[in-house]
Amino acid sequence: MSFVTSHQEGSILTLTLDRPQALNALNGQVLEDLDEALNGVDRNTVRCLILTGAGDRAFAAGADIAAMANMTEDQAAAFSRRGNEVFRRLETFPLPTIAAVNGYALGGGCELAMACDIRLCSENAVFGQPEVTLGITPGFGGTQRLMRLVGMGKAKELIFSARNVKAPEALEMGLVNAVYAPEELLPAAKQLAARIARNAPIAVRACKAAMNEGTDLGMDEAMAAEVREFSGCFETEDQKRGMQGFLNKQKNIGFENK
Ligand code: CO8
Predict the structure, then answer these.
(1) Which end of the chain is more exposed for a tag (fewer CB within 10 A), N or C?
(2) Is residue 73 part of a domain?
(3) Domain containing 236: what range?
(4) Among the listed residues 44, 158, 156, 143, the one whose alpha carbon sits nearest the alpha carbon of residue 87
(5) How many angstroms does the Cα of residue 30 sit away from the middle of ligand 1?
(6) What is the pLDDT of residues 199-243, one digit of tens each?
């Protein structure tokens, strides 16, 4: 039995955190199962990943507090390191990822959503980094990714105060891209995934790599990363297909991931 289920429909793979009795809280096994689920992704057929939570209450209510309560400093470091390793793998995974946040995304849950490329949420979504109320800091990337997404001042306000934000405020600050009625969230995520999946997959992956790499570089090195990813698309079959298709006024160019 796994705490992460996979369901592929065409070229879209939905991964679901499946521990609803604990609001999909992230313990060591959930992290391993997520890593394993990423191992199982068929990169030849999948063109977009959606990550969501089982049930209608939570995406993930954070790292598992019961599992952390009696950790030593060394154990906490190992847990944080492992979580960061898996989340970084997701962040740099060579496919676009969409978090469909269907309820609470607190602590590690918010951090997991932030490791995805795009966040959509339901009207009942609640985001926050409540760690300081537990006597700890965010430990799965929250001190680093939140400020990159919403700016340093807002990130410090949210992390220091442990104030939760509801969907409309998350939208306003750019933490999520769009808000949907709960029943419309997954269909909307799939619609966006399908739209992404229609585009040249090598090019989409290259955009992700250039944008991810560029965030951590100065402008000159970042532009060099763009040149590398841009030129790397040339001589692919899909680049020829895409450009010839345009020149021939062809509609609905099908790309082959080659
Ligand atoms: N960990 C473990 N169990 C949880 C968690 C969690 N984070 N969240 C919820 N649960 C469990 C509850 O214990 C409860 O279980 P049971 O039914 O057996 O008592 C079940 O889920 C349902 O939860 P509630 O009864 O509390 O449901 P409510 O509707 O009353 O409240 C809340 C929902 C508001 C989401 C509430 O559950 C809550 O506040 N949860 C904790 C949120 C939180 O503080 N998250 C941050 C955790 S810390 C963290 O994520 C740090 C990440 C970095 C780690 C670095 C490693 C060292």
Answers:
(1) N
(2) yes
(3) 201-247
(4) 143
(5) 14
(6) 999 999 999 999 999 998 999 999 999 999 999 999 899 999 999
Residue 93 sits in a domain whose CATH number is 3.90.226.10
Band (1; pLDDT cuts 50, 70, 90): confident
Q: Are both 155 and 227 inside the same structural domain?
A: no
Pocket probe for ligand 1: among 17, 23, 31, 114, the residue whose CB has the most ligand atoms within 8 Å is 23
The owner of tokens 């991931």 is 257
Measuring from each residue's beta carbon to the nearest atom of ligand 1, which residues come in under 6 Å?
Answer: 22-23, 25, 61-66, 68, 76, 79-80, 83, 104, 106-108, 130-131, 134, 138-140
Distance of CA 169 to the CA centre of its chain: 19
253 in a structural domain? no
The residue whose CA is least distant from atom 36 of ligand 1 is 61
Amino acid identity at 71: M
State the pLDDT confidence band at 251, using cuts at 50, 70 and 90. confident
Active site positions, annotated: 111, 131
Residues 108 and 16 in one domain: yes
In a domain, 256, yes or no: no
Other beta carbons within 10 angstroms of residue 130's beta carbon come to 19
Q: For ligand 1, atom 15, which residue shows the shortest CA distance?
A: 22
Residues 210 and 170 in one domain: no
- Which of 59, 65, 84, 144 most suits a substitution to test ligand 1, by most atoms within 8 Å of the C-beta? 65
Q: Judging by DSSP bridges, how do beta strands 104-106 and 58-60 pair with one another?
A: parallel
For the stretch 21-37, pLDDT in tens is 999 999 999 999 999 99
